[in-house]
Protein backbone atom coordinates (compact mmCIF):
# COMPACT_ATOMS: atom_id res chain seq x y z
CA UNK A 1 0.00 0.00 0.00
CA UNK A 2 2.78 2.46 0.88
CA UNK A 3 4.50 1.60 -2.37
CA UNK A 4 1.31 2.47 -4.30
CA UNK A 5 1.01 5.80 -2.50
CA UNK A 6 4.67 6.52 -3.24
CA UNK A 7 4.17 5.74 -6.91
CA UNK A 8 1.10 8.00 -7.07
CA UNK A 9 2.99 10.88 -5.44
CA UNK A 10 5.87 10.37 -7.87
CA UNK A 11 3.50 10.32 -10.84
CA UNK A 12 1.84 13.55 -9.69
CA UNK A 13 5.22 15.23 -9.30
CA UNK A 14 6.22 14.23 -12.84
CA UNK A 15 2.87 15.42 -14.21
CA UNK A 16 3.18 18.78 -12.46
CA UNK A 17 6.73 19.23 -13.79
CA UNK A 18 5.66 18.25 -17.33
CA UNK A 19 2.92 20.89 -17.59
CA UNK A 20 4.48 24.35 -17.24
CA UNK A 21 2.24 27.24 -16.28
CA UNK A 22 1.30 29.72 -18.97
CA UNK A 23 2.69 33.19 -18.39
CA UNK A 24 -0.17 35.67 -17.83
CA UNK A 25 0.52 37.77 -20.96
CA UNK A 26 0.55 34.62 -23.11
CA UNK A 27 -2.66 33.35 -21.53
CA UNK A 28 -4.29 36.73 -22.20
CA UNK A 29 -3.28 36.62 -25.89
CA UNK A 30 -4.56 33.05 -26.28
CA UNK A 31 -7.84 33.89 -24.52
CA UNK A 32 -8.27 37.01 -26.68
CA UNK A 33 -7.86 34.93 -29.85
CA UNK A 34 -10.58 32.55 -28.63
CA UNK A 35 -12.83 35.51 -27.78
CA UNK A 36 -12.23 37.11 -31.19
CA UNK A 37 -13.43 33.81 -32.66
CA UNK A 38 -16.61 33.29 -30.59
CA UNK A 39 -17.55 36.94 -30.04
CA UNK A 40 -16.85 37.65 -33.70
CA UNK A 41 -19.36 34.91 -34.54
CA UNK A 42 -22.04 36.26 -32.20
CA UNK A 43 -21.51 39.86 -33.35
CA UNK A 44 -21.30 39.05 -37.07
CA UNK A 45 -17.86 40.67 -37.01
CA UNK A 46 -15.94 39.02 -39.86
CA UNK A 47 -12.86 41.13 -39.12
CA UNK A 48 -12.55 39.71 -35.60
CA UNK A 49 -13.17 36.19 -36.87
CA UNK A 50 -10.58 36.54 -39.60
CA UNK A 51 -8.05 37.97 -37.12
CA UNK A 52 -8.41 34.82 -34.97
CA UNK A 53 -7.98 32.29 -37.79
CA UNK A 54 -4.96 30.97 -39.62
CA UNK A 55 -5.74 31.15 -43.38
CA UNK A 56 -5.42 27.35 -43.65
CA UNK A 57 -7.86 26.62 -40.81
CA UNK A 58 -9.81 23.39 -40.89
CA UNK A 59 -12.97 23.27 -38.77
CA UNK A 60 -14.43 19.78 -38.58
CA UNK A 61 -17.35 17.93 -37.05
CA UNK A 62 -18.29 14.25 -37.17
CA UNK A 63 -21.92 13.92 -38.29
CA UNK A 64 -24.01 10.76 -38.13
CA UNK A 65 -26.69 10.13 -40.75
CA UNK A 66 -30.01 8.32 -40.25
CA UNK A 67 -28.40 4.94 -40.98
CA UNK A 68 -25.75 5.49 -38.30
CA UNK A 69 -22.88 6.17 -40.72
CA UNK A 70 -20.39 8.88 -39.83
CA UNK A 71 -19.21 11.61 -42.16
CA UNK A 72 -16.64 14.29 -41.56
CA UNK A 73 -17.89 17.76 -42.41
CA UNK A 74 -15.22 20.41 -42.93
CA UNK A 75 -15.23 24.18 -43.11
CA UNK A 76 -12.36 26.42 -44.25
CA UNK A 77 -11.31 29.79 -42.84
CA UNK A 78 -12.83 31.53 -45.85
CA UNK A 79 -16.17 29.76 -45.37
CA UNK A 80 -16.26 30.50 -41.63
CA UNK A 81 -15.45 34.19 -42.20
CA UNK A 82 -18.15 34.36 -44.88
CA UNK A 83 -20.76 32.77 -42.62
CA UNK A 84 -19.78 35.14 -39.83
CA UNK A 85 -20.25 38.09 -42.19
CA UNK A 86 -23.87 37.01 -42.87
CA UNK A 87 -24.66 37.64 -39.19
CA UNK A 88 -26.14 34.19 -38.45
CA UNK A 89 -24.63 34.26 -34.96
CA UNK A 90 -26.46 37.49 -34.09
CA UNK A 91 -29.69 35.47 -33.80
CA UNK A 92 -28.37 33.69 -30.70
CA UNK A 93 -29.29 35.85 -27.72
CA UNK A 94 -27.79 33.43 -25.14
CA UNK A 95 -24.21 33.97 -26.36
CA UNK A 96 -22.40 31.55 -24.08
CA UNK A 97 -18.63 31.95 -24.50
CA UNK A 98 -16.77 30.02 -21.81
CA UNK A 99 -13.05 29.85 -22.67
CA UNK A 100 -10.71 27.36 -20.98
CA UNK A 101 -7.04 27.09 -21.88
CA UNK A 102 -6.34 23.36 -21.62
CA UNK A 103 -2.63 23.32 -22.41
CA UNK A 104 0.17 25.46 -23.77
CA UNK A 105 3.60 24.31 -24.88
CA UNK A 106 6.00 26.58 -26.73
CA UNK A 107 4.11 27.70 -29.87
CA UNK A 108 1.09 25.41 -29.46
CA UNK A 109 -2.06 25.75 -27.38
CA UNK A 110 -5.27 23.75 -26.89
CA UNK A 111 -8.36 25.74 -25.91
CA UNK A 112 -11.94 24.71 -25.20
CA UNK A 113 -14.78 27.09 -26.02
CA UNK A 114 -18.28 26.26 -24.77
CA UNK A 115 -20.81 28.17 -26.86
CA UNK A 116 -24.60 28.24 -26.69
CA UNK A 117 -25.21 25.20 -28.91
CA UNK A 118 -21.81 23.56 -29.34
CA UNK A 119 -18.36 22.92 -27.88
CA UNK A 120 -15.21 23.78 -29.85
CA UNK A 121 -11.73 22.40 -29.26
CA UNK A 122 -9.33 24.94 -30.76
CA UNK A 123 -5.75 24.08 -31.68
CA UNK A 124 -3.77 27.29 -31.81
CA UNK A 125 -0.28 28.12 -33.03
CA UNK A 126 1.84 31.18 -32.44
CA UNK A 127 2.19 32.35 -36.03
CA UNK A 128 4.40 35.36 -36.81
CA UNK A 129 4.10 36.49 -33.20
CA UNK A 130 0.30 36.14 -32.96
CA UNK A 131 -1.89 33.29 -31.75
CA UNK A 132 -4.01 31.87 -34.59
CA UNK A 133 -6.56 29.06 -34.63
CA UNK A 134 -5.28 26.34 -36.96
CA UNK A 135 -7.77 23.52 -36.31
CA UNK A 136 -11.18 23.24 -34.68
CA UNK A 137 -12.92 19.99 -33.79
CA UNK A 138 -16.44 20.69 -32.62
CA UNK A 139 -19.52 18.91 -31.36
CA UNK A 140 -23.13 20.01 -31.03
CA UNK A 141 -24.69 19.93 -27.59
CA UNK A 142 -27.40 17.22 -27.22
CA UNK A 143 -30.25 19.76 -27.17
CA UNK A 144 -29.05 21.30 -30.43
CA UNK A 145 -28.62 17.88 -32.05
CA UNK A 146 -32.21 17.03 -31.11
CA UNK A 147 -33.50 20.38 -32.41
CA UNK A 148 -31.74 19.90 -35.73
CA UNK A 149 -32.92 16.30 -36.06
CA UNK A 150 -36.53 17.39 -35.45
CA UNK A 151 -36.21 20.21 -37.99
CA UNK A 152 -34.81 17.76 -40.56
CA UNK A 153 -37.86 15.47 -40.16
CA UNK A 154 -40.30 18.28 -41.00
Describe the protein in words:
The protein has 154 residues and is α+β, with helices and mostly antiparallel strands. 43% of the residues lie in helices and 37% in strands. It has a six-stranded mixed sheet. The chain has a single domain, classed as Nuclear Transport Factor 2, Chain: A, CATH 3.10.450. The chain is built from five helices and six strands. α3 runs antiparallel to α4. The chain is globular and about 50 Å long.
Task: List the uncertain runs.
Answer: 11-19
CATH T-level fold name:
Nuclear Transport Factor 2, Chain: A
Cα distance spanning the termini: 60 Å
| Count of domains | 1
Number of helices: 5
- Order of neighbouring strands in the sheet with most strands: 2-1-6-5-4-3
Largest sheet: 6 strands, mixed
Shape: globular
Descriptors:
154 residues, single chain, 6-stranded mixed beta sheet, Nuclear Transport Factor 2, Chain: A
Could you provide a short overview of the structure?
The protein has 154 residues and is an alpha+beta fold. Helix content is 43%, strand content 37%.
Topology at a glance:
Blueprint: H1 2-18, H2 24-43, H3 46-52, E1 53-64, E2 70-76, H4 77-86, E3 97-105, E4 108-115, E5 118-127, E6 130-140, H5 142-153
Parallel strand pairs: 1-6
Antiparallel strand pairs: 1-2, 3-4, 4-5, 5-6
Helix pairs in contact: 2-3, 3-4
